[in-house]
Amino acid sequence: MKYTLDFQPKLFSALKGYDRRKFTADLMAGIIVGIVALPLAIAFGIASGVTPEKGLITAIIGGFIVSFLGGTNVQIGGPTGAFIVIVSGIITQYGIEGLAIATVMAGVILVLLGVLKLGMVIKFIPYPIVVGFTAGIALTIFSTQIKDLFGLTIEGGVPDDFISKWAVYFQNFDTTNFWSLGIGLVSIAIILLTPKVSSKIPGSLAAIIIVTVASYLLKHFCHVDGIETIGDRYTINPSIPAPEGFSFSLETIRGLLPPAFTIAMLGAIESLLSATVADGVTGDRHNANTELIAQGAANIVVPFFGGIPVTGAIARTMTNINNGGKTPVSGIIHAVVLLLILLFLSPLTKHIPMACLAGVLVIVSYNMSGWRTIRGIMHNPRADVIVLFTTLLLTVIFDLTIAIAAGLIMAVVLFMRRVMESTNISVIRNQIDLDADAERHHNDDKVDVEKGVEVYEIDGPFFFGVASKFDDIMHRMGDKSLVRIIRMRKVPFIDSTGLHNLENLIHASQKENIAVILSGVTPSVRETLLKAGIDALIGADNICDNIHIAADRANTLARELKK
């Protein structure tokens, strides 16, 4: 089969028939989304351990590439809260250059996923894992904002791990700066109350404007000195920096491969989840492979300008949809708006209180927590609950790399167990009931088999887990049969371990002079059996299309063996 690259950016198809009405809608949506993205980009940048303008640069360059090359009409790309934990961890261990290398590596992985057409595979990651690590990230983000929210004075810095971090907080709550705490709580209140006043005004933007003006007045006219702002901690460069290279080495790549894989998986999951949510609202259909290639390209380019990982942002994408965004042009306009703000208004951002940004991120973490979803999953099978809370705890206590790997392994093991439990293997002697059976011929509802013929019916996939179950049943059979019919009409596939066990069964049966016949073999399973040489092992005549042929063949062999 000839390979074709599945890369079809939505922008190019959207521009066909593009008119003034669509541009007006995209323009308004892009401006609003750009304004909404401003405080989030700054907050995510600072929380990730980089300077505020790096968050803006990520939203500008990454957002532009995602909209220009992406497979979704309304997707908005940029930094998100989900990456805060992994990014800050990489910076702590490997530095800014290590983060840049890991992000480029993640971009390459994402592009490969798209090129290999694995976009649909990402969607099969179990939902409890997604909920678990998202809730774990939310809890971790919340814990990182306690220092700025309470204005704590902590000598020696805040530890990285969750438990030690909270131990230090409790030891230093007596240093709470009540001006900071008040600003943080007022910011949270404004964000929560703004939608009740106007659904058009972003709560985070309203909080930043109101609280920044209030804190400026308090500092300059009331001589309040206890309010720390962005300008007290960072120097903001109001420009797009020239691209800078960094050195790759095999040792560095090997060390950064696990976090790079985590960035790629997290970016793929979040961007495709955002695209799926957008499809549900707009009625459109995204191209998952194109979206992954676009996300990968953004993550390859952004690090050269000092940016952090890029992915699809659900909240900003929904803001785009709710404000009339129709095509990727709105996402490009959002990036242009942020660029203009960076170039001409960024000096004003130095007056934003750190406690206000902490309040914004507290709300972000609350929205990410998905506690209602967790409450719903609590009524699901116990395996789902175990996977969810294991992933959550590993995310919080250790890190996201371990959490995703362990969660996937647990989910696979539990899935295999479920399949094993749902796959039935039954043993039939003397007579096969064909009532309501697809292989029923005319009025024949039963098939008689000679004494000494045993029929083993497998209902489900014949893979490595079920293969051992089948083997156990075979060994438990007391009477020695003359012919064994293995009825495979309900076997959708057979894997290498299943083939191995089937070969062992055939060899063991032949040593005891027991003939083996396969019945109801589907075309796909037959092809697998022929490639494995099963036809040469038992004879092509003993691989039968239906139970009637198999039973006639078995009865004939049984009568011959009795002589």
What is the gist of this entry?
The chain has 563 residues and is α/β, with parallel strands linked by helices. It has helices spanning 10-14, 20-48, 52-69, 84-115, 119-122, 127-144, 146-150, 162-172, 178-197, 203-221, 230-233, 250-282, 288-301, 314-322, 329-344, 354-369, 371-377, 382-397, 400-422, 464-476, 496-511, 523-531, 534-538, 547-562, and strands at residues 77-78, 311-312, 424-429, 431-433, 446-448, 453-459, 483-490, 515-519. Helix 20 (464-476) links the parallel strand 6 (453-459) and strand 7 (483-490).
Overall description:
- This protein folds into two domains: 283 residues, no CATH class; 140 residues, Transcription Regulator spoIIAA.
- By secondary structure, the protein is an alpha/beta fold.
- 64% of the residues lie in helices and 6% in strands.
- Strand 7, helix 21 and strand 8 form a beta-alpha-beta unit.
- A four-stranded mixed beta sheet has the order 3-6-7-8, with helices on both faces. The protein has a two-stranded antiparallel ribbon with strand order 1-2.
- The mean pLDDT is 86.
- The longest helix is centred in the middle third of the chain and has 33 residues.
Number of helical segments with 4 or more residues: 24
Q: What's the Cα radius of gyration?
A: 31 Å
Distance between the termini: 52 Å
- Briefly note the structural class of the backbone: alpha/beta
Major sheet description? 4 strands, mixed
**What is the total tally of β strands?**
8
Strand percent estimate:
5-15%
The global form is elongated
